Amino acid sequence: MLVRTGETFVIVVTGATGTVGSKVVSGLRERGESVRALVRDPGSRPAEWDEGVEVVAADYTDPASLDAALAGADVVYLLVAVHPEMAQHEINIIDAAVRTGRQPRIVLHAAAGVEYKPEGVRFLSAHVAGHAHLEASGLPWTVLAPNGFHQNFLGMADAVKAGRLTAAAGHAPVSWVDARDVADAAVAVLTGEGHEGAVYTLTGPAGLTHEEIAEQLGAVAGREVAYQAADPQAALAGMLGAGWDPWRAEGLIELYTFYAGGGAGAVSSDVEKLTGHPARSFADFAADHAPVFGG
C-alpha cells in the first residue's frame, strides 16, 4: 500500500462508475489501495465495492462539493463524461485540486492525439483545453490518452446479430484499445513513480478497418457480418431522429470523420510499457464477449 509521510495515500477517482473508472477502482482495490470514488449519486454504489472504497458525492459544477471530495488527496484520476461542459468540468476539478494546497498529482484521462491539438473534434478539443489548464496549474501531472474502446462495439451487438455493422467511419484503420488495458495502465500510473509530465498514448496492438472489425465479430458470432460505411449526414439525421442529444451526435460524427481521415490509426506500445503485458487484441475482446454478439 502506498504511504505518504507515514499516512495512507489518498487516491481519488472521478467518473468512478463508468466503463474505465469502475475498472480503475477494482484494480486499485486488488492492489490493496484504498480509494475515494467520486460519484454523482451516492446511491449508485456498485455491489462489488467493499469497505476499502469511500464513496463521495460530487457535482463538477459545485466548487464546495469538489473541495470536500478532494480534501487530503495525493493523486487524482481525472475522468469526466462526454458532456457539453466537459472541458469546464476538467478545469473545475483541477482548480479544486490546486485549492487543497497539497499539490496532488493529476492523472488526466484524455484521448489519443490530445498533445497534437487536433481541430474539428469537440471531444478532443475539450481535453486539449483541460490539458492546457493542467499544465498552467503548477500541479504535477500525467496524461493517459486512449484511442476508442473495444467496448464501444457492445452497443452494436443487436446489429451484429443481424449481420451488419454500420458507422460513418470510412475505411481507414483505427487502433482501438480495450478499456481493461486502459484501467490497468491507469492503476500502474496512479500507484507508480516517474510519470510526471508524460503523455501515454494507449492503443491496441494493431490498427483495424471496420471491415476487419466486422470480420472478427462475425467469427465469434458464427455468421457473416458486413460493414457499411454510412454517409455522415445521413448517420447524423438518423441519430437525431432516434432522439440523440444534438451536441453528442454531432460530436460523434466529428470523431468518425477524424477516424475516416486516418487520424486514429497509429499504434503505440505504451500499454505494455506501463502494464507489463501486451495490449489485448480486438479478437481477444470479441471472443471474451462472444455471447453478447450471438456466439
Summarize the structure.
The protein is of the alpha/beta class. It contains eleven helices and eleven strands. The chain has two domains: 11-146, Rossmann fold, CATH 3.40.50; 148-177 and 204-265 and 281-294, UDP-galactose 4-epimerase, domain 1.
CATH architecture of the largest domain: 3-Layer(aba) Sandwich
Q: Mind describing the biggest β-sheet?
A: 7 strands, parallel
Please report which band the strand proportion falls in: under 5%, 5-15%, 15-25%, 25-35%, 35-45% or over 45%.
Answer: 5-15%
Total DSSP helices: 11
- Gyration radius, rounded: 19 Å
Largest sheet: spatial strand order:
5-4-3-6-7-8-10
List how many beta strands DSSP finds: 11
Overall domain count:
2
What series of H and E elements makes up the topology? EEEHEEHEHEHEHEHEHEHHHH
Estimate the global geometry from the Cα principal axes. globular
For this structure, the CATH topology of the largest domain is Rossmann fold
DSSP helix fraction: 25-40%
N-to-C span? 41 Å
InterPro entries: Ergot_Alk_Oxidoreductase, NAD(P)-bd_dom_sf, NmrA-like
Pfam families: NmrA (PF05368)
Domain NmrA-like: 10-233
Protein name: NAD-dependent epimerase/dehydratase family protein
Question: What does this protein look like?
Answer:
This protein has 2 domains: 11-146, NAD(P)-binding Rossmann-like Domain (Rossmann fold, 3-Layer(aba) Sandwich); 148-177 and 204-265 and 281-294, UDP-galactose 4-epimerase, domain 1 (Alpha-Beta Complex), CATH 3.90.25. Strands 5-4-3-6-7-8-10 form a 7-stranded parallel β-sheet, sandwiched between helices. Helices cover 39% and strands 15% of the residues. The protein is of the alpha/beta class. The model has no long low-confidence stretch (mean pLDDT 95). 43% of the residues are buried.
